[in-house]
Amino acid sequence: MSEQNFDVVVIGAGPAGYVAAIRAAQLGLKTACVDMFTGKDGKAALGGTCLNVGCIPSKALLDSSKQFHNLTHAFAAHGISAKDAAIDVGTMVGRKDKIVKQFTGGIALLFKQNKVTPFFGKGRLLPNRQVEVTAADGSQQTLAATNVILATGSVPIELPFAKFDGKHIVDNAGALDFSETPKRLGVIGAGVIGLELGSVWKRLGADVTIIEALPDFLAAADADVAKTAAREFAKQGLKIELGAKLSKAEIKGDEVHLTYAAKDGEKSLVVDKLLVAVGRRAYTDGVLADGTGVKTDERGRVVVDEHCWTGVEGVWAIGDCVRGPMLAHKGSEEGVAVAELIAGKAGHVNLDTVPWVIYTEPEIAWVGKTEAQCKAEGIPYKTGSFPFAAIGRAVAMNEPAGFVKVIAHADTDRILGVHLVGACVSELVAECVVAMEFKGSSEDLARIVHAHPTLSEAVHEAALAVDKRAIHKAN
């Protein structure tokens, strides 16, 4: 068993891990990155869940399905007609795979350019900051490091009564690789993954039913945003049943027979495919050997402080395997922060200003506190909102659904949260994050000139509406 020495060894090459490795190498630290992900072609692939079976491929399919839906449903309003439009699912999935390959290969090139040494296999932290790497063929080697960064990510939660078989009952990865559009698709969980992938196949012609155990739709989002989104999804024919708990999923032939408890009693549903999207859990299985001193909580997450330090000298943890939202951009920023801390620089991530985005149609995005959170915490607040239906650019795009809502402190006017639903709000939320990071007020947003005609004017007008001085709507 050979041993190599590094300043930093990162376990995991997802958005948290590969970013940490690149930043550490940029800072002059001898860096290695260990990862065990295997791509569809059976070869090692960097990028973790996000690039291989998450963020990037799902957005590729969302875009393809949106184009098809526009062609068959929306373009008539523009005077554009298309006869006998069809979708070749194989070509669509092939495009998605090509994009994934481009970006995972891009990380390999970045590793080479920054002199990050990749090791392919499962990484396990041993005592005294040593990392055991077990390759696919069972061979092992040990890496020694001054600092180890755990960035092992997360995996889908599997229900004991609806186990993944990769064909009929699938996780997010399986739902990205259907060979054809299922006639009937069942989705368990109305969260980000369930809504996004449910939307993809609905737009391509599937009859989609989403079963959600919680009584409220998108409970993490602002109630006004959730209400508007639910209404738009209903218009699209996306069926969402709330307060419904799955109890049984039986594969019979090429069908999946579901039994679930709904508000009005037990129900049954037969589908061709079932996507189980009830959340993800930190992946720390077999990652920590005895005697490392690193602790995990009741959910299997590595315990860290506000600087992502585990309390063990030279051992850090970032991304989905620690507290905080399981979001790629949050993990990436933690990776940068930890690399800079190791190099003796300042590093910090403000979890209060991490933006959330759901890439449905319309898109949903938010940053900061919801109105319900402000009430629960006794924070005095005021709000202003503005609809996209009154924004010239949105109407010209034929996408007038949704609005922007700004929540500000009633006394100081400091922005507490911004909540958006509508076209391209995944991009609009960024200016709101910047404003909050700089301790901005609604007055600051209201005084900034926004280009006309743009969708961003909705942010401007919502900020004006906080003090009842919106120009293009009644106050």
Keywords:
22 strands, alpha/beta, 31% helix
Question: Would you write up a description of this structure?
Answer:
With 475 residues, the chain is an alpha/beta fold. It is 31% helix and 26% strand. It contains 13 helices and 22 strands. Strands 1, 2, 3, 4, 5, 6 and 17 form a seven-stranded mixed beta sheet that branches. Helix 3 runs antiparallel to helix 4 and helix 3 runs parallel beside helix 6. The longest helix has 26 residues. The protein is globular. The relative contact order is 0.12. The model has no long low-confidence stretch (mean pLDDT 97).
Offer a concise description of the structure.
Helix content is 31%, strand content 26%.
Counted by DSSP, the helix tally is 13
**Termini separation:** 73 Å
Rounded mean pLDDT is 97
Any idea what the radius of gyration is? Answer: 24 Å
Helix content: 25-40%
Total count of strands: 22
* Largest beta-sheet details: 7 strands, mixed
Low-confidence stretches: none
**What is the assembly state of the chains in this entry?**
single chain
| Beta-strand content estimate | 25-35%
Q: Provide the structure class.
A: alpha/beta
Shape annotation:
globular
